[in-house]
Specification:
Layout lengths: L7 E11 L1 H13 L7 E4 L17 E3 L3 E7 L8 E6 L5 E7 L7 E8 L4 E9 L2 E9 L4 E7 L8 E7 L4 E10 L16 E7 L7 E4 L2 E11 L2
Antiparallel strand pairs: 1-15, 2-13, 3-6, 4-5, 5-12, 6-11, 7-10, 7-12, 8-9, 8-11, 13-15, 14-15
Length: 227
């Protein structure tokens, strides 16, 4: 019988104009993993790292107790996949999703936001011991808000979300996190994001082509079990 947990995803990463220092970093990871032997966490550079990017009622999203989340709201793409967030408390409330990835990496968090009345929202990037908040103004038109940056703490988890003041009500759609400096095209996710915790090198050796001083090229193969 088929085993639904036996799925494997593979990548072939083609690198060009790689400096000697950059290649040394790849080699260090290869040596630390002992080639194919051990696994590491890989962030798919083509994927949205968050899960359930449009359904914020799922358990992967952690909402403060007095924050109401309602699905089925009209979204900027003409569907009804946005969520409405209402702060029923007398203080700020937030909703955040954490991913099992290094907190010190460069990330870009983006989300579409709107509100019937002008409102202030803070985009949240958070790890244990540090919060980074970026204020965003919302209004009747859908706007893609973007927050890019890094945290100085070294944790193996980092959270992304929104926070807003008492009594505020906003609509949100299309949350996305990418391990890069700017936002790419939105990619909807459901029960799988682009964080692969059981990734390994798919070869026992690395090959390198040197095209010029301090300019190298290589193809690196990786694979990961989908469990």
């Amino acid at each position: 019988m088929g085993d639904p947990s036996a799925g494997i995803v593979r990548w072939q990463l083609q690198y060009g104009n790689v400096t000697d220092a950059e290649w040394a970093t790849i080699e260090q990871l290869f040596e630390a993993a002992e080639g194919r032997l051990t696994t590491f966490t890989f962030l798919d550079p083509t994927a949205n790292l968050l899960m359930w990017s449009e359904d914020w009622t799922k358990p992967v999203w952690t909402a403060d107790p007095m924050l109401q989340v309602v699905t089925g709201i009209q979204d900027p793409l003409g569907g009804s996949n946005a969520v409405q967030l209402t702060n029923t408390s007398q203080s700020s409330q937030r909703i955040v999703q954490s991913i099992a990835a290094a907190s010190w990496f460069q990330y870009c968090f983006s989300v579409y936001l709107r509100s019937d009345a002008p409102s202030g929202v803070q985009m949240v990037m958070s790890a244990s011991g540090q919060d980074s908040l970026t204020p965003i103004s919302t209004g009747p038109a859908w706007t893609r808000a973007v927050k890019s940056g890094t945290l100085s703490v070294s944790q193996n988890s980092i959270g992304f979300g929104v926070q807003f003041a008492a009594g505020a009500r906003i609509q949100a759609f299309g949350a996305q996190v990418e391990a890069q400096a700017a936002a790419g095209q939105y990619k909807k996710t459901i029960d799988r994001g682009g964080v692969y915790a059981k990734t390994r090198f798919d070869s026992d050796a690395l090959t390198l082509s040197t095209n010029a001083p301090n300019q190298n090229a290589s193809t690196v193969s990786l694979c990961s079990n989908l469990i």
